[in-house]
Amino acid sequence: xxxxxxxxxxxxxxxxxxxxxxxxxxxxxxxxxxxxxxxxxxxxxxxxxxxxxxxxxxxxxxxxxxxxxxxxxxxxxxxxxxxxxxxxxxxxxxxxxxxxxxxxxxxxxxxxxxxxxxxxxxxxxxxxxxxxxxxxxxxxxxxxxxxxxxx
Length: 151
Description:
Layout: E1 2-7, H1 12-23, E2 27-32, H2 42-54, E3 60-65, H3 69-76, E4 83-85, H4 89-99, E5 103-107, H5 113-125, H6 132-150
Parallel strand pairs: 1-2, 1-3, 3-5, 4-5
Helix pairs in contact: 2-3, 4-5
């Protein structure tokens, strides 16, 4: 899978994230502080990673900043992106299952190495729900994106 990864800081957990994704066999596309010379501002690098998902250059993305909040906000401004800030494995599983999230947002401050592994395990094991109510909710979010593009 092609995964865009952004971080506004070159922190150990961000480097560990890239290593872990590669160890899992993913093609990692780095942004921000993870790519020399790239814009490392959280809004810019999160947008760049999210755009790759929206445009089909990446299957998913992981965006990181100190709290994870700014990265998730910036990513969610890109139509077609459903970014979820996940601080534990249960939230990551739910984000994939009920929200069909395609971008994982992480806090560089809160995410330890063991927690990162748990979150990634849950994220990649999670499958989007086929429940009609869940699909209707995801479709509604898509319509919100379309309405925003039209305005």
